[in-house]
Write a structure and sequence with these properties.
Number of strands: 7
Order of helices and strands: EEEHEHEHHEEH
Low-confidence stretches: none
Structural class: alpha/beta
Mean pLDDT: 94
Number of helices: 5
Oligomer: single chain
Shape: globular
Largest sheet: 7 strands, mixed
Strand order of the largest sheet: 3-1-2-4-5-6-7
Distance between the termini: 33 Å
Helix content: 25-40%
């Protein structure tokens, strides 16, 4: 897997100050995508053990609230397989820090039959706290929305969803 960027101090892709990884490779090709370069699976740099160590080290300071995973598309099967060990380590090393993931797939696709589903999808979903799901839709773009680009995208609290057995949206009590 390749990645396009690591943001060390991101405040746009989840609450608080976060470390964000933008993976390469996406087959959605949403019109108006802000990150077209990452559609190419070969874009950027190889994701190596040193990259993983850098991310884990960047998460160490107490003021870092969590990790956000974006793309490209983290749920492309080859990306999932490369990301799962990193997510396991983040949850083991930093259990109080939240993990957010942005995907053009909706949760129902990831849990059901879709081209994104593979042998590690369920475990990857279990390690994510909030899933921002759905493709970016340019006609539904709204810059007033928090942590998403278009109004069709949902911020799903996966912990509460798992506990309730039904879909629960994330709510931080502020205007979305």
């Amino acid at each position: 897997m390749n990645y396009g960027a690591i943001k060390k101090c991101d405040i746009a892709n989840g609450p608080g100050i976060r470390v964000s990884l933008f993976v390469s490779g996406c087959t959605h090709h949403c019109p108006g995508c802000f990150n077209k370069d990452t559609w190419d699976f070969n874009y950027g740099e190889p994701f190596t053990p040193q990259t993983e160590r850098e991310i884990l080290d960047l998460l160490a300071p107490e003021h870092i609230g969590g990790f956000s995973l974006l793309g490209g598309e983290p749920f492309e099967p080859q990306n999932q397989r490369a990301l799962l060990p990193l997510l396991r380590k983040i949850k083991a090393q930093y259990p109080t820090k939240s993990v957010w993931c942005y995907s053009g797939y909706v949760l129902e696709q990831l849990m059901g039959e879709s081209r994104a589903r593979c042998e590690v999808t369920d475990e990857m979903l279990d390690l994510i706290d909030v899933l921002v799901d759905g493709r970016f839709v340019e006609a539904k773009k709204d810059i007033r929305l928090r942590f998403r680009g278009s109004s069709n995208q949902r911020l799903i609290d996966l912990n509460k969803t798992r506990a309730a057995g039904s879909l629960i949206l994330w709510d931080d009590g502020m205007r979305k």
